[in-house]
Design a protein that fits this description.
Layout (H helix, E strand, L loop, with lengths): L4 H10 L13 H16 L6 H14 L9 H10 L2 E5 L9 H9 L1 H5 L9 E8 L7 E5 L12 E10 L5 E5 L3 E2 L3
Helix pairs in contact: 2-3
């Protein structure tokens, strides 16, 4: 150990502490190409999932003429550990309303709005967008790397869901696909 102390310290400082043995990957050439590709994609803020990484590893293996290579989830897991690649959220804006504001609205405003109506005459409706071309909001990234995303697809189907206070009826209205502006 004393003879190899420099190598051991280098591995300790550069590797994850979860790795118990310092082994080199069996397909170093595939790993090198995949790591270069991963860095290039992350520099362009492209979201990358585990299955995509697995498919690219198989693609690079075919390009390198490795017919015996079949990328498994465990290979990707070890690849991610060796290079400190973790899952992170691409972007997200937190918008919240305080519980006090909600309680106050229910006690005062809602009570006035619903005066003179029965529960079957009161409907709650909400619109939501089904973004059918939206890319994932999570990606693989290097540990400590900040995740930023590019523009997300705005193609969506608008859905309106409504129900009465008694829950007797439900309506589902779907509009044609639109591109959301803004």
């Amino acid at each position: 150990m004393w003879k190899n102390r420099a190598k051991i310290m280098q591995c300790f400082e550069s590797k994850s502490l979860k790795i118990k043995k310092n082994r080199n990957p069996t397909h170093q050439d595939i790993e090198n190409v995949l790591l270069v590709w991963f860095k290039a994609q992350r520099s362009q803020n492209v979201p990358i999932s585990g299955p995509l990484l697995q498919e690219k590893a198989n693609h690079f293996a075919r390009q390198l003429g490795k017919i015996d290579f079949k990328c498994s989830e465990s290979w990707i897991y070890r690849f991610r550990q060796r290079h400190d690649i973790v899952v992170g959220k691409v972007c997200g804006e937190a918008a919240s309303v305080s519980q006090n504001d909600c309680d106050n609205w229910l006690r005062t405003v809602l009570k006035k709005l619903t005066e003179g109506y029965t529960d079957s005459q009161i409907w709650n409706a909400d619109e939501t967008g089904l973004f059918f071309k939206l890319t994932p909001d999570r990606t693989l990234k290097f540990k400590g790397e900040k995740c930023t995303g590019g523009k997300l697809s705005k193609d969506r189907i608008t859905v309106l869901v409504a129900s009465s206070m008694e829950g007797e009826k439900r309506k589902l209205l779907v509009t044609k696909p639109t591109k959301r502006r803004g």
